[in-house]
Design brief:
Keywords: DNA-binding, Phosphoprotein, Transcription, Transcription regulation, Two-component regulatory system
Shape: globular
Strand order of the largest sheet: 2-1-3-4-5
Structural class: alpha/beta
GO molecular function: phosphorelay response regulator activity; transcription cis-regulatory region binding
Number of domains: 2
Protein name: Two-component system OmpR family response regulator
Radius of gyration: 18 Å
CATH topology of the largest domain: Rossmann fold
InterPro entries: CheY-like_superfamily, OmpR/PhoB-type_DNA-bd, Response_regulator, Sig_transdc_resp-reg_receiver, WalR-like, WH-like_DNA-bd_sf
CATH class of the largest domain: Alpha Beta
Distance between the termini: 46 Å
Organism: Rehaibacterium terrae
């Protein structure tokens, strides 16, 4: 039985392009152009994963509201935000809305499908019994690769998929500087330097919410970032 993906996007051309790309990978895809239309369909049956545009028709933040409604119904449903507005990233990535990841609308279709597959892999790994897997442990950190899980001092850090792979890139080689280009390649995103900087700031804030003394990520000016050796 194929997995179902719902795309809530008010621009038909974008919605159709995403749907066609995902169908090529065997997903069953349903498209919706507005929050009320999607809400009605979801009241009957939830999909396996939802991709939501933030601005929906005459609702500039309709996607946020839909995400809240979905998260109230399911704590495990994978939710991926699409945004054309960089200012939205702080709201999304704070995970106050419960989104699992977020992508810019100018993402390539292969990147989109890779991110959807990564979310499904993470959900499957979290549901599966604990098995032998690659684990990085350093001071208070534990990073479980297959489960895409990060723990700091015994508490889960609610990282998005993008943030997880950036932390993974840093932790694999403690003390080694990773350039912004290397972090983008690891996280399968193509963004500008300012957005990478914003990602790192948000990652730090999530660790600091658990441990206010957290200072494991160093900024090496002009070069990139490193996890303390």
């Amino acid at each position: 039985m194929s997995r179902t993906v719902a795309i809530v996007e008010d621009e038909p051309a974008i919605r159709d392009n995403y749907a066609e790309a995902l169908r090529r990978y065997g997903f069953e895809v349903h498209g919706f152009g507005s929050r009320p239309e999607a809400k009605l369909a979801f009241s009957l049956r939830l999909p396996d994963l939802v991709i939501i545009d933030i601005g929906l028709g005459d609702e500039p933040e309709g996607g946020f509201e839909l995400c809240r409604e979905l998260r109230a119904r399911s704590s495990t449903l994978p939710i991926l935000f699409l945004t054309a507005r960089d200012s939205d990233l702080d709201v999304i990535s704070g995970l106050r809305l419960g989104a699992d990841d977020y992508l810019s609308k100018d993402i390539s279709l292969p990147q989109l499908t890779a991110r959807v597959q990564a979310l499904f892999r993470r959900m499957e790994a979290l549901r599966a019994p604990a098995a032998r897997e690659q684990v990085f442990a350093l001071r208070g950190l534990r990073l479980e690769v297959e489960r895409m899980r990060v723990v700091w001092n015994g508490s889960d850090v609610p990282l998005t998929v993008t943030e997880f792979w950036m932390v993974h890139a840093l932790v694999r080689h403690p003390g080694h500087v990773r350039s912004r280009e290397q972090l983008m390649r690891e996280a399968q995103v193509v963004v500008d330097d300012a957005t990478i900087t914003s990602h790192i700031k948000r990652i730090r804030r999530k660790f600091q919410a658990i441990d206010p003394t957290f200072d494991e990520i160093d900024t090496v000016h002009g070069a990139g970032y490193r996890w303390r050796p």
